[in-house]
């Protein structure tokens, strides 16, 4: 299946998720995430879920990571829409977030976080395949950014749905995940 077709199908599938099921699946995702054998993590790049698109919130996962890794540094993406690039900034408990023109919450301020600083990256997606490739919203900003991340940084996707067999139109610009977590299990690539 091609990315454009996958994108359309999985946007519809996410829209159709019952809120009660979503809460249950979020709890199951956290349980699966807690089973992931991660080394000590000092820094993580995460994302602010777009609730209207039923993206998976990383809040509970971050709470678990902070408990397991005292002093954990957390960064969020900031998008430059004119140039289709993504940057990241460190946040604290006092950081304010503002919703941008695309409906994405971004930190209003914060020190720049270089891509090579991250031990772990939590990656949003619509779908993924059994080789660890993902389908996002189609702008390619995450793949451009992930290309700059350290090779040993762990890239983890989160999905409510099980993997596709194969995304037919992956290319050299697509960066595969190391893991993807669903309510049913952990996929390692």
From TrEMBL:
Known cofactor(s): Mg(2+)
Binding site for substrate: 55
GO molecular function, one term: metal ion binding
EC number per UniProt: 6.3.3.2
Source organism superkingdom: Bacteria
Alphabetical UniProt keywords: ATP-binding, Ligase, Magnesium, Metal-binding, Nucleotide-binding
Enzyme class: ligase
Binding sites annotated in the UniProt record for ATP: 3-7, 134-142
One Pfam family linked to the record: 5-FTHF_cyc-lig
InterPro entries the UniProt entry points to: FTHF_cligase, FTHF_cligase-like_sf, NagB/RpiA_transferase-like
UniProt GO BP: folic acid-containing compound biosynthetic process; tetrahydrofolate interconversion
Catalysis performed (reactions): (6S)-5-formyl-5,6,7,8-tetrahydrofolate + ATP = (6R)-5,10-methenyltetrahydrofolate + ADP + phosphate
Family designation: Belongs to the 5-formyltetrahydrofolate cyclo-ligase family.
Protein name from the UniProt record: 5-formyltetrahydrofolate cyclo-ligase
Species this protein is from: Niabella soli DSM 19437
Lineage of source species: Bacteria, Pseudomonadati, Bacteroidota, Chitinophagia, Chitinophagales
């Amino acid at each position: 299946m091609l990315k454009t077709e996958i994108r359309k199908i999985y946007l519809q599938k996410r829209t159709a998720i019952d809120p009660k099921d979503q809460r249950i699946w979020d709890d199951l995702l956290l349980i699966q995430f807690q089973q992931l054998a991660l080394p000590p993590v000092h820094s993580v790049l995460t994302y602010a879920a777009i609730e209207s698109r039923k993206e998976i919130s990383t809040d509970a996962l971050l709470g678990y990571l902070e408990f397991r890794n005292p002093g954990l540094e957390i960064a969020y993406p900031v998008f430059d829409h004119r140039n289709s690039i993504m940057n990241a900034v460190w946040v604290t408990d006092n950081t304010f977030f503002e919703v941008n023109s695309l409906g994405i919450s971004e930190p209003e301020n914060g020190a720049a976080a270089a891509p090579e600083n991250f031990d772990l990256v939590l990656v949003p997606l619509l779908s993924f395949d059994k080789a660890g490739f993902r389908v996002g919203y189609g702008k390619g900003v995450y793949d451009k950014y992930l290309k700059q991340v350290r090779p040993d940084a762990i890239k983890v996707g989160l999905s409510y749905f099980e993997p596709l067999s194969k995304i037919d139109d992956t290319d050299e610009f697509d960066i595969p995940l190391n893991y993807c977590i669903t309510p049913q299990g952990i996929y390692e690539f």
